[in-house]
Amino acid sequence: MLLISVASCTEQEEEQTKMVKVDLNSITEIDTVWICTGSAAKRFHSSDSCPGVNSCTKEVKGITRGEAEKKRRSACNICYRLEEEE
Ligand SMILES: [Zn+2]
User: Fold this and answer.
1) What is the pLDDT of residues 48-69, one digit of tens each?
2) pLDDT for position 81
3) Which of 26, 29, 45, 53 maximizes the CB count within 10 A of its CB?
4) Can you list the positions of beta strands (E) in the chain?
């Protein structure tokens, strides 16, 4: 039986979300999106150079798309629309 002890410091967990860990088994599932941590922000962005990210007055953070969806963020209609256009 393998036991892994996890330090129960929520502040550290917050810091760690900034770093995307690359696991070879799940590399295709890692889809990094960018969010503004401001309370008014409700979107996630495919690029940190999106105008929506640039207008962020708080910290811009890279997280996984799954995490962004858990936070009830919806896809930014600026950068995601640009991506879909051929
Ligand atoms: Zn955007």
Assistant:
1) 999 999 989 999 999 999 999 9
2) 85
3) 45
4) 32-36, 43-44, 60-64, 74-75
Determine the distance separating the centroid of ligand 1 and the alpha carbon of 26, expressed in angstroms: 25
Alpha carbon of 19 to ligand 1 centroid (Å): 20
The 8-class DSSP code of residue 43 comes to: E
Helix (H/G/I), strand (E/B), else coil: 33: strand
Q: Which residues contact 48 (CB under 8 A, 6 or more apart)?
A: 34, 60, 62
CA of 62 to the centre of ligand 1 (A): 13
CA distances to 2, 20, 65, 73 from 62, in Å: 31, 8, 9, 13
Whether the per-residue pLDDT at 32 is higher than 90: the answer is yes
Of 38, 22, 31, 85, residue with least CA distance to 63: 31
